[in-house]
Amino acid sequence: MEFSAKQIAEFIQGEIIGDENATVHTFAKIEEGMPGAISFLSNPKYTPYIYETQSSIVLVNKDFTPEHEIKATLIKVENAYESLAKLLNLYEMSKPKKQGIDSLAFVAPSAKIGENVYIGAFAYIGENTVIGDNTQIYPHTFVGDGVKIGDNCLLYSNVNIYHDCRIGNECILHSGAVIGADGFGFAPTPNGYDKIPQIGIVILEDKVDIGANTCVDRATMGATIVHSGAKIDNLVQIAHNDEIGSHTVMAAQVGIAGSTKIGEWCMFGGQVGIAGHIKIGDKVGLGAQSGVPGDIKSGSQLIGTPPMDPKQYFKASIIRKSLPNMQKELHDLRKEIEELKQLLNK
């Protein structure tokens, strides 16, 4: 499918600089541009590539002013990255979607399957499960008894959804995601650890994305909840009875212990670790590898263990490199002071 610069500009409300009849049929990174491709520039680090890219069209921010001649047609927009996202979504929507139930899939007789649903080979759909319209379930995915999945969801291969969990509309679950495994609940006894039955569920609200091999554990009682619009990366652990606020995003390898409440619009870098039974407010930012032992108020931007202001953290990091020398100097100073005391006492 081919689109002209004029059509694209109308769709994303952009201003054309160059040939409005330039056409594209694919996407490419600006440094790997080719004729017939559309690229984008939002990070100044990549500015040199715009003068040599072979892409036919490049999206740029409105404040971009070229310093040299550019061969490509430019489309100026408020935010090049957001505009690219709109075009990529349009591209995805234009792709034909699979439909129908493969003859090698198992669908329980009591399951209710919506319209235009795709269920791939060797997928399993349990008793009394409900699958919404236009949802796609790829091969080898397990959907347990009593699960409810909304409309327009996408479950890639080898997703596992345990019994009675709830998935909203327009959710995406990537391969290896496990929704509703038992929370890590054990009671210590003189003979070891007795398992505490986990009788709750998991609720994913609308437009939640769950990355590959991410686990969201079912609640001991009640529900573990991921609210609408949250985006969870690969290899993340969300423990029992956690509550993740709307539009919060978490990078890979974040781990959240049980019964913790996370606010809305938070951003957590990779490998952030969060203790259980605490509360983190709205719009909190945590840098990669931060360790959080206690509550954090809304609006905080922190890094480190325990988390601190980024400026203080980086100052402390610089000092940390000098600690061995500082320790030696301190030892030498103490030795000199003791020698001086002995001289004074004489």
Automatic annotation (TrEMBL):
**Signal peptide (residue range):** none
One cellular component term from this protein's GO annotations in UniProt: membrane
Q: Which GO terms describe its molecular function?
A: N-acyltransferase activity; UDP-3-O-[(3R)-3-hydroxyacyl]-glucosamine N-acyltransferase activity
InterPro entries, sorted? Hexapep, LpxD, Trimer_LpxA-like_sf, UDP_GlcNAc_AcTrfase_non-rep
A Pfam family annotated for this UniProt entry: LpxD
Per the record, the pathway is: Bacterial outer membrane biogenesis; LPS lipid A biosynthesis
User: What is catalyzed by this enzyme?
Assistant: a UDP-3-O-[(3R)-3-hydroxyacyl]-alpha-D-glucosamine + a (3R)-hydroxyacyl-[ACP] = a UDP-2-N,3-O-bis[(3R)-3-hydroxyacyl]-alpha-D-glucosamine + holo-[ACP] + H(+)
Keyword flag Acyltransferase = yes
EC number(s) recorded for this UniProt protein: 2.3.1.191
**Residues of the UDP-3-O-[3-hydroxymyristoyl] glucosamine N-acyltransferase non-repeat region domain:** 22-90
Q: Name one GO biological process term.
A: lipid A biosynthetic process
Q: Where is the active site?
A: H240
- Do you know which NCBIfam families this protein is assigned to? lipid_A_lpxD, PRK00892.1
Q: What does this protein do?
A: Catalyzes the N-acylation of UDP-3-O-acylglucosamine using 3-hydroxyacyl-ACP as the acyl donor. Is involved in the biosynthesis of lipid A, a phosphorylated glycolipid that anchors the lipopolysaccharide to the outer membrane of the cell.
Q: Please state which protein family the record places this protein in.
A: Belongs to the transferase hexapeptide repeat family. LpxD subfamily.
Quaternary structure, from the entry:
Homotrimer.
Q: What is this protein called?
A: UDP-3-O-acylglucosamine N-acyltransferase
Which species does this protein come from?
A: Bacteroides finegoldii
Give the gene symbol: lpxD
